[in-house]
């Protein structure tokens, strides 16, 4: 088992930027809903993973929209997993730096919002995310931080291209990018795709609205 940095769990429990004192919960729900509606063929999605699911606001949307999909949520804070009960098919208290419970390419869609900026080893967390993702990843991270009193545990990256460069590789490319008026960057990545053109005659990835 990985040894967590001092106070790591406590910082996740009391993050003001993605906790009850912010609009995070409503935004997570709306962003998951928006993602659902740009996917033209939801029946192609058979398994979804929400990394850093907190109390299940995004999971509710995925479970409602993707009727036949297996919806899975993970979070490092057990209290959040307990409160998310009933929002997904499976819930696990798990460190996103080690998703070894899951097989390579197990999930058609991997979603994560306001999670990567908390990682103590973001390169490892991104590698695990890409390993378990089969075709699509949606990544949302803040470029501006609300938690001014406790920023030492954040990975504070203010330029979208920095995040993009950490994720894009020979297999994964970015197909959607939006910087919101809330100071977040929303990114959608597809595997084995040249920008705007799906490989293998659109068979490898569900179609998305552009």
**Strand order, largest beta sheet:** 3-2-1-4-5-7-6
User: Strand share of the residues?
Assistant: 15-25%
Distance between the termini: 41 Å
Gross CATH architecture: 3-Layer(aba) Sandwich
Radius of gyration: 16 Å
Fraction of helical residues: 25-40%
CATH class: Alpha Beta
What does this structure look like?
By secondary structure, the chain is α/β, with parallel strands linked by helices. The protein has a single domain (8-202), classed as 3-Layer(aba) Sandwich (Rossmann fold), CATH 3.40.50. It contains six helices and nine strands, in the order ααβαβαββαβαββββ. It has helices at residues 8-13, 24-38, 57-65, 78-83, 122-132, 160-167; strands at 47-51, 70-75, 90-93, 107-113, 133-142, 172-179, 184-191, 193-194, 197-198. The protein has a seven-stranded mixed β-sheet with strand order 3-2-1-4-5-7-6, sandwiched between helices. Strands 8-9 form a two-stranded antiparallel ribbon. The longest helix has 15 residues, at 24-38. The radius of gyration is 16 Å and the shape is globular. The relative contact order is 0.15. The model is unreliable at 194-208 (pLDDT under 50).
For this entry, give a set of tags.
single chain; 210 residues; alpha/beta; Rossmann fold; 7-stranded mixed sheet; two-stranded antiparallel ribbon; 6 helices; disordered C terminus
Summarize it.
With 210 residues, this protein is an alpha/beta fold.
Please write out the topology.
Blueprint: H1 8-13, H2 24-38, E1 47-51, H3 57-65, E2 70-75, H4 78-83, E3 90-93, E4 107-113, H5 122-132, E5 133-142, H6 160-167, E6 172-179, E7 184-191, E8 193-194, E9 197-198
Parallel strand pairs: 1-2, 1-4, 2-3, 4-5
Antiparallel strand pairs: 5-7, 6-7, 8-9
